[in-house]
Design goal:
There is one protein chain. The chain is of the alpha+beta class. Among the domains are: 218 residues, Hypothetical protein af1432, CATH 1.10.3210; 161 residues, no CATH class. 52% of the residues lie in helices and 9% in strands. It contains 24 helices and nine strands. The strands form three sheets. Strands 3-4-7-8 form a four-stranded mixed β-sheet. A hairpin with a 2-residue loop joins strand 3 and strand 4. Helix 6 crosses helix 10, helix 13 runs parallel beside helix 20 and helix 14 runs antiparallel to helix 16. The protein is elongated.
Length: 550
């Protein structure tokens, strides 16, 4: 077979054949062709195929997409791009491969990474972000305006399919069987990793827990945000490949071979890495200014797509500034207003926050439902419902659409560091399961709890309407609270203010005080009843006017 490994052979047989010079995939050439010097990473050496991939327009567009999206509005030098990060991830993956291969404590099988596997790892590192769109994490992970870049099969096919420029390069140089194996790893879902069998370790090195992707962006984001954190990664010297059933996994060896004690220094380093990830989350990823700007941008994009200003496919060729420019020229007033405010850093103000403690407290009183799941289903996954709810509260308060923005990120947060596989006390387990260690265990638990507390549902209001803060807050509480008493009280306060606004604007408040109070009570009862199922501002105003003109 001239163009790849015979798939009927076992991986072990294939490796043996490769060692004998038989059935080697055509074109596998890891020899450095060019060296690129990067901040943070230093020199990254790339082979001819990798350089040719970088030179494609699809990869070059990553130069125009910032790694941290709107974070430059907080940290002006956070202008590094997904292009930089992708190359840095190759450098980090290469460092991990070298650490595994050269660890003298690893057996031959524990450090065996064939050249074909190395090339797949390097390509996976190089291309793991090639499907990103402008402000991708904000639009996909945080606000669910579009499907995630790594699960969007149509987008993956556009950038990496067999007919794409990059796909054709890989097939031409390395053959279709190699390409198919690469794509199998690239497209695997996290809950289906077992299907990769021995190739799981390839995924582990680039995309999983303590992986090349994460280790590069932690150092890079720290550097360009000017945060000084210890990021030496000495624990990489203790990586090895472990067999668990049919799988090979990347594991950190925390227990000394033949010893009855762990390696506390390496465990402490992993915990410090988790702590550093928390600090980055607190100071960068969840900085309030970054969240506000991101929520405003996502709301503008969602409205622009609904107005057919552009489609998701248009974003496949744009950079960050291209998108912002298009938004500022939208025919829709809310889109232009939001985009110009982001561009000029005229940001909305936070007026509401519902954190995990509040939901946990309500959960203890409502054991018949999973309140966090309901919150995620209504206001994270369902972007249309989130926007409809926020616009209902805004327009009922006499504000234009877009003046109030509801923000609800994924509650799972980024805790994958705690899931790294470690060899601990005679077995392979996740780092989070090492809480039995007396010194580090309590700190590990504290850090994990701190990560979770970064999450909250928030609402932001345009500063020129800040006098409407109280009304908007009551409206938000009326839809977000799970406590029936609190929800009803907030709804009554909110709709009472709506009645006052509508009657005043329509000159319906000229009747006697006693008559006004009676009609207000009638309108409030009707509005409360009708909006329990359907939230429509025009309907609310019609009910109020009918109550005062009958």
């Amino acid at each position: 077979m001239a163009d790849g490994i015979d798939k009927s052979m076992s991986r072990a047989e294939a490796r043996n054949s490769q060692a004998q010079g038989i059935l080697i995939p055509r074109g596998v050439d890891l020899a450095p062709y060019k060296t690129i010097r990067l901040a943070v990473s230093g020199d990254v050496k790339l082979n001819k195929l990798e350089i040719d991939i970088i030179d494609t327009p699809d990869f070059q567009r990553l130069r125009r997409i910032r790694q941290l999206g709107v974070t430059y509005l907080v940290y002006p030098t956070a202008l590094h791009t997904r292009f930089d990060h992708s190359l840095g991830t190759v450098g980090m993956a290469n460092r991990m491969i070298l650490a595994i291969r050269t660890n003298r404590h690893n057996s031959q099988d524990e450090r065996d990474i064939p050249d074909e596997d190395e090339q797949i790892i390097r390509l996976l590192a190089l291309l793991h972000d090639v499907t990103h769109i402008p402000f991708g994490h904000t639009l996909e992970d945080e606000c669910s305006v579009f499907d995630r870049h790594d699960t969007n099969t149509v987008r993956i096919q556009h950038f990496l399919g067999s007919d794409s420029a990059i796909g054709k390069l890989i097939i031409d140089r390395l053959g279709k069987p190699f390409y198919d194996r690469f794509m199998r790893v690239y497209q695997v879902k996290k809950d289906s990793l077992a299907s990769l069998e021995e190739d799981v370790y390839i995924y582990d090195i680039v995309n999983n827990t303590v992986c090349a992707d994460l280790l590069d962006y932690l150092r890079r984001d720290c550097y360009f945000s000017n945060l000084v954190l210890d990021m030496e990664y000495r624990f990489l010297n203790y990586l090895y490949l472990a067999r668990t059933g049919k799988e090979r996994r990347v594991v950190v060896r925390l227990w000394k071979t033949g010893k009855s004690s762990p390696r506390p220094d390496i465990l402490s380093e992993l915990v410090r890495l988790l702590d550093n990830r928390y600090l980055l989350g607190e100071r960068v990823y969840f900085h309030h200014t970054k969240l506000i700007a991101g929520a405003m941008l996502a709301d503008a994009v969602q409205r622009a797509v609904a107005n057919r200003d552009f489609t998701e496919k248009d974003l496949w060729t744009w950079g960050d500034e291209d998108l912002l420019e298009i938004l500022t020229k939208s025919k829709a007033e809310p889109v232009r207003t939001l985009a110009m405010a982001v561009r000029n850093r005229g940001l909305w103000k936070q007026i509401y926050k519902r954190n995990r403690q509040r939901i946990d407290a309500e959960q203890s009183e409502h054991r018949d439902a999973a309140l966090m799941d309901q919150t995620m289903g209504s206001w994270w996954k369902d972007a249309k419902k989130r926007q409809a709810d926020q616009d209902f509260i805004a327009t009922c308060s006499g504000l234009p659409p877009g003046a109030l923005i509801l923000y609800c990120p994924d509650e799972r947060m980024n805790l994958k560091l705690a899931e790294v596989k470690v060899f601990w006390n005679g077995s392979i387990r996740e780092l989070r399961q090492c809480e039995d260690e007396q010194v580090v265990g309590p700190k590990l638990k504290t850090i994990l709890d701190s990560h979770k507390q970064l999450w909250a549902v928030r609402a932001f209001l345009a500063p020129q309407y800040i006098e409407k803060k109280e009304a908007c807050t009551e409206g938000l509480e009326s839809i977000l609270s799970f406590d029936s008493l609190s929800r009803d009280m907030a709804a009554k306060e909110f709709y009472s203010k709506v009645i006052e606004r509508v009657t005043k604007e329509s000159n319906l408040d000229t009747c006697s005080h006693s008559e006004y109070v009676q009609r207000q009570a009638d309108a409030l009862e009707r509005v409360m009843s009708d909006t329990a199922t359907v939230k429509n501002t025009s309907k609310v105003e019609e009910i109020i006017k009918n109550a005062f003109t009958k």
